[in-house]
Amino acid sequence: MRTEAIDPPGITWQRVSPKYVTVRLVQWAIGNLVTVIVLALPLILVLLGWWRWPPLWLAITVPAVTLVLAIWRLLLIPRQVRAIGYAERDDDLLIRGGIFFQRTMTVPYGRMQYVDIGVGPVERGLGLCTLKLHTASPGTNATIPGLPAAEGARLREQLAARGEARLAGL
Description:
Layout: E1 14-15, H1 20-47, H2 56-83, E2 85-88, E3 92-97, E4 103-108, E5 112-118, H3 121-126, E6 128-135, E7 142-148, H4 149-167
Antiparallel strand pairs: 1-2, 2-3, 3-4, 5-6, 6-7
């Protein structure tokens, strides 16, 4: 991944688990397949002759375009997962992600109020978790999804200890 423009020099990024692709695929399937099916209902009703509006071309175009966009998003999922990374430094934690719109976030340890771990049913089945960092700013959306559960627990304890030390001024 070419992020030299926004990455600090000399950083070794830790990647999330490749199993996280499966979590994202399940999320994709639930969201997109239901959407395509619902948008295809008018087409089915028009083809059966039970409904005269919308015109046939519109009844075909809407689900077809939605399906093409859904497949495009599906193809991007493995690359999006590979783009997620984090790096622990002495005074802060770096989190990055994104393919087209790349983002690198710095969260100072002294600003962390608490560290939370969440696990959904698919993540639990794969032994993964999502780490969430909470700061005083409600705009901070610092999450690291797709961590192996053991690494998530280690990181939670490590970040909480560093945050307490920085907050106490040590």
